[in-house]
Amino acid sequence: MSHRPRRPLFLAALSATLLGTALAGGSTAPQQMGDLDVNGARIHYVSQGSGTPMLLLHGYPLSGELFSRNRDALAAAGYRVITIDHRGYGRSTAPASDPGSLATYAQDALAVMDQLNVPRAIIGGMSMGGPIAFEMYRRAPERFLGLILIDTIANPASLVEQNLWKGMAQKAAQFGPQSLAPELLKDMLTGQTRVTRRADVTFLTDIVKQASVAADVAGANVLATRPDSIPTLKTITVPTLIIEGLEDTVYPVEFSQKMQQNIAGSKLVILPGAAHAAIFEKASAANTAILNWARANNLR
């Protein structure tokens, strides 16, 4: 197992119930967090609210705290919002023998659902979380009530993108996880946000620093070698929402438009003034889009 330092508050398998403060005008909802033994790894999760389960999967190289501005508003509207840290990211750890792969990330997420007694859920994936959600759908479509795709992509990586992720892996291995923050933050947030909301930059930078080197290398390899999920899109029959930051330079709007064209009945919402981390940067608008879509599709 990885032996990265962990905060004492999160050493217990199940922590005490906490209360979160609503960030978008909703009432507070009970929040539970803990660590689960999953497929040889220790996966940290946060579960907030009660009602229809909604599992949100973060991107590279972040953690479930990417959704810290979404949990309260969604939980207050009647959803049980569950976020996890993929193995090796955030407060999760992984064995050296399996730091992470697309199959493992998908298996971990399904196993967390099992351990939390969640037979079916609305499942959302941001960036790398999208390919993970596609892999989950290929393995267990019956576990999906709905699908949310956030600044992600179904295409396999181009030659240029493959080399970009290989470079990220090499940089993390040579200079540590913190070295990735400057490379990534310029794409995660718009220039306007980086200049005027420095706390947002600090928050995401701190999350990037929490990852292990092995996780950074594994995640970069997953992104570089991800399969073509365009054929999978044509098999999706659950209600699907696609959220895209207008200024996303990692996976621009055109990729989201292509996903919409290939998923029957899907809805695309483009958020102005948002880049790759649109779910965080424009959280209120993203929350509204999710709730409007969920209500329209009777996902309650």
TrEMBL record:
Keywords: Signal
Domain AB hydrolase-1, residue spans: 53-283
GO molecular function, one term: catalytic activity
InterPro entries for the chain: AB_hydrolase (IPR050471), AB_hydrolase_1 (IPR000073), AB_hydrolase_fold (IPR029058), Epox_hydrolase-like (IPR000639)
Signal peptide: 1-24
Pfam families tied to this protein: Abhydrolase_1
SUPFAM superfamilies recorded: alpha/beta-Hydrolases
Stored PANTHER family: HYDROLASE, ALPHA/BETA FOLD FAMILY PROTEIN (PTHR43433), NON-HEME CHLOROPEROXIDASE-RELATED (PTHR43433:SF4)
Name of this chain's protein: Pimeloyl-ACP methyl ester carboxylesterase
Natural source organism: Deinococcus budaensis
